[in-house]
Structure formats: structure tokens, C-alpha cells
Amino acid sequence: MSWDLSGARPPVVVDTTLRDGSHAHRHQYTAEEVRRVARALDEAGVYALEVSHGDGLGGSSLQYGFSRQDEMELIRAARETVKRAKVAALLVPGIGTRKELKEAVEAGIQMVRIATQCTEADISEQHFGMAKEMGLLAVGFLMMSHMRPPEFLAEQALLMEGYGADVVYIVDSAGAMLPEDAYLRVKALKEALTRAQVGFHAHNNLGLAVANTLAALKAGADWVDATLRGYGAGAGNAPLEVLAAVLDKAGLNPGLDVFKLLDAAEYVMGPILHFQPYPDRDSVAIGYAGVYSTFLLHAKRIGKELGVDPLAILLELGRRQAVAGQEDWILRVALELKEKEAGALAD
Ligand SMILES: C[C@H](O)CC(=O)C(=O)O
Ligand SMILES: [Mn+2]
């Protein structure tokens, strides 16, 4: 793969600071924070911003973490604030249901992103049907896409296209891809899909989120995701303000105001952040072992409570090929590692 971007086009940019960033924020966003971020993103020219619990509509729970404020109030706050940008929500079948989707439409969403494991697109048929019935722009998210080869993902994307998806994303949930991996996966979807466009969602666990996004664009990606300050699960996502500057330099700026985004990252997002995600020891382990980025804070917390190294927990989850929705494994693995260590000490 060469880095020649001459075939790439300016992408549609979706900001997910208020959804993927909700993982980093431990789902504690307030409507006031949503208004501040939404205003800044809208003024800087993003096409859409995604607002919901990090695990999507209906995610507020013991398993995934309780939201501080009802996500419908957050969606409403975003919709009331924006003048141009569309408001989106994420829905994971099995977590979110028709009820939450209907409420989210009433609260103001115009687009829904339906996320399944990259092996399970077939569970999304009804959800795409509902989304189209409700007049939404419908986007498919193939999570943990590093786990399967390009041709397999293309088959899954074709299913989503058949169900009505307007766009299908390759989602590097584990931030485990190298640029070549992102390139080949996006290219396979571009070649296979006849109607739907193709998107790419990066995580920065190996420090490659912007590079992988560029590789996706080179392969023809039409849509890309980013967040202010990269605020998101694991080491975060592609930082929007950095991506905007890079796209601008590459002649691929879809109309983002780079300096407004730099100000938004510094002065709006800076004071809101609980911490600045970066590829720290545990996040790199996530990318290296191919683990779902959202497990990071759960593993850190459980590791601290039980006195088990989070890195060991994450590596073991990678060995077991755990995927989204298996958050209960984190505790189980930590307890097993603790037991094993106690056994080894007793011997
Ligand atoms: C529900 C997930 O957090 C979706 C996502 O952003 C990813 O898999 O990455
Ligand atoms: Mn993500």
C-alpha cells in the first residue's frame, strides 16, 4: 500500500465524542456538557454528531455502567442546540430495542448506527427495517472487524445493505489494525457493495487512528469517525481536530473549520475530559491483543479492586477472543487469575 491519496475524496465526518466518548466519561455526561460540545461541533462544520450511552441506546445498566442523565435528555439537548449538524444515536441489537429507538426519534435523532459483532450482521435485519420505517438514515457498524478477513466482512456488509443500510462501517473496536488491515477491509466493502457507502471507525490503541483513517480513505471510504481530543474507549478514537488538520493538508477537507476545532478541543473539551486517553500500557495491550476497547476502564477498576494486573486480564481476554457484550468475563477472568496466583503461591 502506498500513501498516495490522489484517489481519495473528502469524507463525511461523524463526531462521536458524545457517544464513544461516553465510555471514557463513564457515562456521566450532563445536558449542559452536551450543549457545549454540540454547539462547538456544529459551528465547526461536522456532518453529524452521535449522542447516547457509550454502549448505545438502553446501555445504562449494571453491566455497562449507569448514565448520570437520561440519554433521551442528552439527545434532546443536542438537537435543540445544533443548527446544521444531524444528530445520531448508536443502537446495539439486544441492548437497545424498538422502544428506545422510538423515544430517540421523538427526542430528535435523524440517523441511527446499528452495531453488531462483525460475524452477526444477520441479527440486524429487523433493526434496519425499523430505522427505515421511522425515516432514519441507517448506518451499519461491523464491530471488532480486525477478527475477520476482508472477504468475510464484505459478505456481512452485503447483508446489512440488503436490510436497508445506507452506509456500512468497518469498525476497528480494538484499535488492533495496521493501515494495511484498514485499507484491505474498506476496499473489500467498496468492491462488494452496490448501493451503500462505506465508513471507517478507528481506535488509537496502537497510535494509528489517524493513519488508519487515511488508509481507509485511500481505499475509498466515504464516511469517517472522530472525537474531540480522541475522547473515546481505550486509547480513544481519531482526534477530530488532528484529523481535520491532516485532511486539510491532504486536500480532503470536507468543510471543517480547523481552527474552530482546535479551539473546541482545547477550550470546550479540555475542561470536560475526565482524562486524556492515550496509548498507555493497558491500551497498547488492548490493541496488541485485539480486545474490545471498552473493556479498558472495566479491567482497570476490577484489577484495582482485586489486586490483579489489568494488563494480564486484558491479554487473557484477548486469548479467549472476548467481544462486546461479554463484559461479565472481565470479572470472571480477573477472579481466575487471582485464584491461579494464590494457588501458585501456596505450592
Ligand atoms: C458499542 C461500541 O462501543 C461501538 C464502538 O464504538 C466500537 O465497537 O468501537
Ligand atoms: Mn468505538
TrEMBL record:
Cite the Pyruvate carboxyltransferase domain residue spans from the record: 11-262
Q: Which Gene3D superfamilies match?
A: 1.10.8.60, Aldolase class I
Name the EC number(s): 4.1.3.39
Q: Binding residues for substrate, per the UniProt record? A: R19, D20, S173, H201, Y292
A biological process from GO: L-leucine biosynthetic process
What CDD domains does its record include?
A: DRE_TIM_HOA (cd07943)
Q: Which reaction does it catalyse?
A: (S)-4-hydroxy-2-oxopentanoate = acetaldehyde + pyruvate
Matching entries from Pfam families are given as: DmpG_comm, HMGL-like
Binding annotation for Mn(2+) = D20, H201, H203
Q: Which keywords does this Swiss-Prot/TrEMBL entry list?
A: Aromatic hydrocarbons catabolism, Lyase, Manganese, Metal-binding
A GO term for molecular function: manganese ion binding
Q: What class of enzyme is it?
A: lyase
| Location of the active site | H23
Q: Where is this site: Transition state stabilizer?
A: R19
**Similarity section:** Belongs to the 4-hydroxy-2-oxovalerate aldolase family.
Record's protein name: 4-hydroxy-2-oxovalerate aldolase
- Species for this entry: Thermus filiformis
Organism placement in taxonomy = Bacteria, Thermotogati, Deinococcota, Deinococci, Thermales
